[in-house]
Design a protein that fits this description.
The chain is an alpha/beta fold and 323 residues long. The chain has 12 helices and 8 strands.
């Protein structure tokens, strides 16, 4: 039990929803999950048990998850409700209207949208002071960050309760003070993607080279050295000098790349079609997905070691952080 929270409701039993429910249940909370698809509800507990088994964690946590065929049943006793439905504004607005009508007046209401402004989703509610965003990252049980996004109406109490809840679950909640599209994480991620696509579009390098450069240079450091930390480490004067030279050449278009639009128009949709920027065999796709999960598990284990006072790494040298 986490103080102030007895039951959590998760709206959506899909990719994100089942993983979010797993985290709450592993934290000792009772979790009600609603999904309009009977098949998703039927598979819910087994999916969670499978994840827990793979992580070597207590599978009994899945027993704290209650699948609900009716939304009102899922939210009627909830202290916290998080929506993890389709990334569709109209769908989310309709869900929150129904949630507000059925849930307790003291429940905090949260959306797990990746990029849609919370203001747009929650604007039609009667009590907008308790509504905010909690943007989890996939997979929720391996990636620690949760962005907590307030709107102009969100009360400080709702933000504080939400941050306290997620800290108690072992997550890393951060407060996003202004409700902007993409919040913090996706704005940073897609700024990188925009330049990556531009480099390919301009034939400066091919797609494989872009990924090799990121994974074998600054990508190696990002888990322990954020961009602002790096700027302070090398010095703001050097950072300014670099920006005076390079920023004018970096892509700054406010619209999607025509190259990307062309890929979509041609049906080159990435792994789902077998080709996007690159061609992908089923074997290559499976190998990459395995590598992602393996790396996230390794990072999670390292986080646990650091929490116990050891970083699991014998190399404590002060190597250069330039580049």
């Amino acid at each position: 039990m986490i103080e102030g929270f007895g039951r959590v409701a998760v709206i959506g039993a899909g990719l994100m929803g089942h993983g979010i429910a797993q985290v709450f249940a592993s934290g000792g909370l009772d979790v009600s999950v609603y999904d309009p698809a009977p098949a998703a509800l039927a598979a819910l507990r087994d999916r969670i048990r499978g994840n827990l088994r793979d992580l070597g964690e207590d599978e009994d946590a899945a027993d704290r998850v209650l699948p609900c065929a009716e939304l009102a049943e899922a939210v009627r006793e909830a202290d916290f409700v998080v929506e993890a439905a389709l990334e569709n504004l109209a769908v989310k607005q309709a869900l929150f209207a129904a949630i507000e009508a059925a849930c307790p007046s003291g429940a905090v209401l949260a959306s797990n949208t990746s990029v849609i402004p919370i203001t747009q989703i929650m604007g039609g509610l009667r009590d907008r002071a308790r509504a905010l965003g909690t943007h989890w990252w996939n997979p929720p049980f391996l990636v620690p960050l949760v962005e907590v996004i307030g709107t102009e109406w969100t009360s400080p109490e709702a933000v504080a309760r939400t941050i306290a809840l997620h800290k108690a679950l072992g997550k890393v909640p951060v407060h996003v003070k202004r409700d902007v599209p993409g919040f913090v994480g996706n704005r940073l991620q897609h700024a990188l993607w925009r330049e990556a696509i531009s480099l390919v579009e301009q034939d400066i390098c091919d797609a494989e080279t872009v990924d090799l450069v990121v994974k074998n240079s600054f990508g190696r450091r990002l888990g322990v050295l954020g961009p602002i930390e790096n700027a302070d480490l090398v010095g703001t004067d050097l950072t300014l000098a670099i920006h005076q030279t390079v920023l004018g050449a970096v892509d700054s278009r406010p619209a999607p790349s025509p190259y990307l639009e062309g890929l979509v128009a041609e049906g080159r949709l990435g792994m789902k079609s077998g080709e996007g920027f690159r061609r992908w065999t089923p074997e290559q796709q499976a190998a990459l997905r395995r590598d992602i999960v393996t790396e996230l598990k390794r990072a999670r284990s390292n986080d646990a070691l650091r929490a116990k006072g050891t970083d699991g790494n014998d190399d404590h040298g002060d190597g250069p952080a330039g580049g």
